[in-house]
Amino acid sequence: MNELQTLGKFLILGGLIMLVLGLLISFWDKIPLVGKMPGDILIKGKNFTFYFPIVTSLILSIIISLILYLLRK
Fold first, then answer.
1. Which of 12, 50, 71, 73 could form a disulfide with 43 if both were Cys (CB 3.0 to 4.6 A apart)?
2. What are the 10-residue block averages of pLDDT along the chain, 73 residues in total?
3. Maximum distance among all alpha carbons in the chain?
């Protein structure tokens, strides 16, 4: 396979990834349970709010790892 074909495949894959990320960002508020899972840390103080979505991060990490594992096969 020559270098231009490899570059073309890389650019197509990069474009698809950017498209998916753009769609996720656009519809993030409409996706149920994302950022609102039990186990996510939310501390509201008088003058500040601290939010750490640990469970949401773990679930997204597992899903992305499974997708990448399946794509490598």
1. 50
2. 82 90 82 76 90 87 90 78
3. 61
